[in-house]
Amino acid sequence: MKIAVMSCIHGNYEAFDAVLSDIDKHSVDKMYCLGDLVGYGPYPNAVIAQIQALDIPTVAGCWDEDVVEGLNSCECSFPSLLAEKRGKLAHEWTNKEIHPENREFLAKLPHTFSEGNMAFVHGSPHSNHEYLLPEIDGFIALERVIATGADVLFCGHTHVPYVRKLDAVSLQVSVKDKNSEAQQRNFTTSLKKIVNVGSVGEPRHGRPNATYVIYDTDTLDVMLREVEYDYKKTCEAIIEKGLPPIFAWRLSRGIEFAERADDPTHVCTR
Prior knowledge:
Largest sheet: 5 strands, mixed
Strand content: 15-25%
Distance between the termini: 44 Å
Number of strands: 11
């Protein structure tokens, strides 16, 4: 069976439509989405409508979660006050733009789900806001996969695609409680894999092209797909709808842009 896994559409319908067209060319049996349907982009309602029309199994992303809960989740990843202000503007715009029935749809999205030996999350099994970066400590990476009970963990959130194989290893853990001496426990894990599918609508790998993944459950092959589309249409719509123009600028370059020197003492107050 071949599956397509995508993430971080962020209201970018042009990119989403291009990815769906590319998927049609590869005889995929099923599609999955790892959340962040909204945020940054100009067409959140159209994206949600298409997800529902195609009945694509979807987990909640951090932006989906925050739109529903009203920014209750901590956004410590903002590198500066200016970046945080722009993020709040995008949340406020999306909050006003989104239809009530679509907000209800987002509220019902699960935080994780599994199928066979595969698990699907937005950030990590522990939090939608946790970044599983490619250079994350190997033990932590392995723990995140083991926590799902799966062999393959699909995630997004970083907006940069990668595949990381975690070789089969033996682990030894020392367990001690107040009523007994320390006991050594050993266990062995099979080969695990983290597949970050990148971003459809807000890529940050250095190009404006949308990214997603095709995975073959029989051969275990992972195909990282990169799809060109008319990103200028989305950039124009971002500006026309009154979203921060910097969103269009960074989308056109496929980078994460944030000033880091305007307030070096900034700390999270939530």
